[in-house]
Amino acid sequence: MNSGSDAGESSTLSLDDGDIFVCQDGPRDAPVLLLIHGSASSTRAWNPMVPLLTGSHRVIRVDLLGHGRSAKPADRSYAIPDQARRAAAVLDRRGVGHTVVVGHSSGGVVATALAEQRPDLVTALALINTGPSLDAFIATESAAVGLSQWPPADEQLRRFASTGFSRTDYQMPEELLDDVRGMTHHSLTTTMRATRSYLEQRALPDRLTVLGKPLLVIFGEDDRRWRSSSASDYRAVPGAQVELLPGLGHSPLLEDPPRTATSLLAFTAIHAVRGG
């Protein structure tokens, strides 16, 4: 591990119910951003964004249990509140008192649960292509590809991943495909069911309205997994900012990092707290 004040470092934290992989970048005295990846992804999905954020933030990323370089136990809970609890434990171990939480896709669901559990810790939320409710989901054949066969064949895996982007010819980074291959069938299917269950219980705008936290919603307009028009549902949250990004799909953090970072940094400049 590198402990330099501005250099990136990574480590594995041992929690009661599994080891969690953590990355930290940027000045240690800067306002904290916690970045939470979506299903079948990892901290690596944020790699293109991190250099754009560390000029003004201490950026912390976690691999949720079952993903990336974190543990993938078969006998632990993958429920959204438990994933949020683990993220909070990481921040507590890091001595973080305040953070803006940024979640991509189902990572935004975990971010919402974290704010519900720890309103003292979360000062604001930014959700990137996070569907507000199950009504917004676009059911496609490719969304289920690879779930019945494990590990999935490369072609199945690429078809499954392709809906995450606006262009069908977009080449998903090989390291992110490796992250999917590295999951267990149990961790993949269970985490996806956990997101569905959480959204079935209550839609995100209803949860966020109660919380009263500043909210930014960024949505690639050409999302092929969640209807981008559903982003307007978040306008029910008082003061919410909703930004549609034309020409981008479900993963604007990978398709156009500078554009995504510009929206995010304008928001955090107002709501991030120094000395997190």
Describe the secondary structure blueprint for this structure:
Elements: E1 9-15, E2 18-25, E3 32-36, H1 50-53, E4 58-62, H2 80-93, E5 99-104, H3 106-117, E6 122-128, H4 154-162, H5 174-181, H6 185-201, H7 204-211, E7 215-220, E8 241-245, H8 252-255, H9 257-271
Parallel strand pairs: 3-4, 3-5, 5-6, 6-7, 7-8
Antiparallel strand pairs: 1-2, 2-4
Helix pairs in contact: 2-3, 3-7
What does the model show?
With 276 residues, this protein is an alpha/beta fold. It is 33% helix and 18% strand. The chain is built from nine helices and eight strands. It has helices spanning 50-53, 80-93, 106-117, 154-162, 174-181, 185-201, 204-211, 252-255, 257-271, and strands spanning 9-15, 18-25, 32-36, 58-62, 99-104, 122-128, 215-220, 241-245. Strands 1-2-4-3-5-6-7-8 form an eight-stranded mixed sheet, with helices on both faces. Helix 3 links the parallel strand 5 and strand 6. The two termini are 21 Å apart. 49% of the residues are buried.
Keywords:
single chain; 276 residues; alpha/beta; Rossmann fold
Q: Which stretches are low in confidence, meaning pLDDT under 50 for 5 or more residues running?
A: 1-7, 141-146
Shape: globular
The CATH superfamily appears as: Alpha/Beta hydrolase fold, catalytic domain
**CATH class type:** Alpha Beta
- Main pleated sheet: 8 strands, mixed
Task: Write the H/E string, N to C.
Answer: EEEHEHEHEHHHHEEHH
How much helicity do the residues have? 25-40%
Beta strand count: 8
Number of helical regions: 9
What is the CA–CA distance across the termini? 21 Å
Structure summarized in a few sentences:
The chain is of the alpha/beta class and about 280 residues long. Helices cover about 35% and strands about 20% of the residues.
